[in-house]
Amino acid sequence: MARYVIDLADKKDEPDLRRILRENYMDGSIELTFRREPDFFRSIEIDGEKVQIVVGRDLKKDKVIGFGIRAIRKLYINGKLENIGYLGNLRLDSEYRNGLMLARGYRYFKQLHKDKKAMIYLTSIVEDNKIAINVLTSGKAGFPPYNDYGTYLSYTIGLKYRKKLRNSDISILRFENGKIDDIVKFIHNEGKKKQFFPFYTKEDIQGKTKKLLGLKTENIFVAYRNGNIVGTMCIWDQSQIKQTVVHGYNKTMNIIRYPWNILSNII
């Protein structure tokens, strides 16, 4: 009997899935753990219309040793809605990181793809996680060919400073349910202009589905110019289902972070 098995997760695996996220951090200048407390399965409801969790099991130790997620959702590509897959959240306990389990996991992903639910797949990797990039893009051991489609930038907002709007003809108002149709139309029109932009319905925004779980309509803001919508944004607090925790810093970041913290309080 084989010691290691790859299959789909079920509810009894939930504690192991959260344990793996807590214990395995992402390499980089800032070492992070991306957690899904207190309920892993509830947290993935925002990941797509169809979500499958592929797990690796060590039958000898009777535990889950790693997992990855295949999520399918509607995104805009070239102005059209397509079913796009996302392969991500790849985690593996350190003692099993010889490449073999990961390759077997990707072969299982390939079997799942036989349902033809996704046109293509996306994967995002933290830029300075060189180990993951080198392994996943090697094309060896059954890994699919990855093409680099560019860099995602995550912006942060400084909470200490308040700046006036540069364009005084723009007004920003909180969400009004009576304007929901106009807001959805604006989001769809803008989404068509961008690659991999997610598709949202009126029901999603109003909280009648789980796609935007935890988003409160009072935290949605709309920018108007001359009575027309020119922008939208929201404050989506996902901390009740997902958390990003700093695990540590590499040597360079450890050296500079203390003077940086001091300067940031002065500037």
From TrEMBL:
Domain of life: Bacteria
Gene source species: candidate division TA06 bacterium
Protein name stated in the entry: N-acetyltransferase domain-containing protein
Gene3D superfamilies: 3.40.630.30
